[in-house]
Amino acid sequence: MPLLARLFNFAQWLAQDRSEAEDLVQETLMKALKGFDSFHQGTNFRAWIFRILRNTFLTSRAGLRAAAVSLDSDEEPSVEPVAGATPESILLAMADQETIARALEELPVAAREIILLCDVEEMSYQEIALTLAIPVGTVMSRLSRARKAMRGLLSDGQMRMAGRGASRGTLQ
Amino acid sequence: MTCAEMRNSLEAYADAELGAAELAEFEKHLRDCPACATDALQAMRAKRMVRAAGMRYAPSAEFQRRMQQQIAPKRWMPWVAIRMPQMVAAGIAVALLLVAATAWVGRVERERTLGEFADLHVAALASANPVDVVSTDRHTVKPWFAGKLPFSFNLPELQNSEFTLIGGRVAYFQHSAGAQLIYGLRKHEMSVFIFREQAGAIPFQVGSLNSTKLGMHLETWSDGGLRYCVIGDTPASDVHGLSELLRRAARS
Ligand SMILES: [Zn+2]
User: Fold this and answer.
1) How does DSSP classify residue B127?
2) What domains can be seen in chain B, in order of their start residue?
């Protein structure tokens, strides 16, 4: 898939809105053209342009809103996995793309973006570090917490679904 | 490595971020510990599932056209070209990098394909019953697939080779059923996958791939409407050797 389509996918995941994603990509391209001097040949173009997009988002109105909701701390995960959720049950929940997508949407931006860069863009930790302008060690810890939070949401979702199933059962 | 240490390295393993030495230790433990092997497979599966779910939003054709025009240098006023030649160069570079499927995309997709076959291979070996038909005789294995698959294929004569046939099973790749044959070579196992060719299912025609991270070699080609993939943790020359035998068998 060409990079333009990938940038757009990432943009819509961040902005959660199609027209805002289009604006984001357009602004990113303009900045990339103007700032191409600051891109050094032989360095990582993908990390460079994703970084422009991400910074553009964070300074946009939607980005500031999102950042205000989740002041990302590198210490505390915002969602803890439910005790007793087994990897198997989470994997089962993950079998459904809709469930995963909903969990991704619910995650704070900092967790969502790092999971997208790692799992969807398949960036290396080094590339993610370049994109987010953080050390590789922070990439690893943030990614680990983000995935934990995601598993938490998935197991939550499972419990909710199980709960619904049970109440339906008693009604019948 | 202890199981606890394994759990700490699990994510880095699924992300293909372990260094060579650590990877070797990790995979050594995987071979001896079914619990950790299951965890590793699940971590890899989870990553793939997130990837599938995360490829969700596509730009409209109209938007893509608009963006391409915007970065295409030909649309710019001549004075821009004269006064800011670096803008033109940047435009060409950005346009090329964004719109063309660039080399890294190919590499990522190739690695993903290799990863998917590596998963199928490792999952089969890790399962309680790696093969559904156990036989060293191709004349037993081949007919077993008749009726289970919508195509047939030839298997090579192995009498004068180092390879032994272990057995076969039905495997699924991108929702289509195919044959998985497991061959032994010295102390290694290799998988041969045979599927009906699907346009675009594998993003390259013919080639061999190596992943030192996964410690796997893969060779793939297309012949007579079928797609063949040979994968194993053996040296590339062994993967190639088995591939050659299969190619010859297909023609006979
Ligand atoms: Zn273990």
Assistant:
1) S
2) 3-54 (no CATH), 108-251 (3.30.200.100)
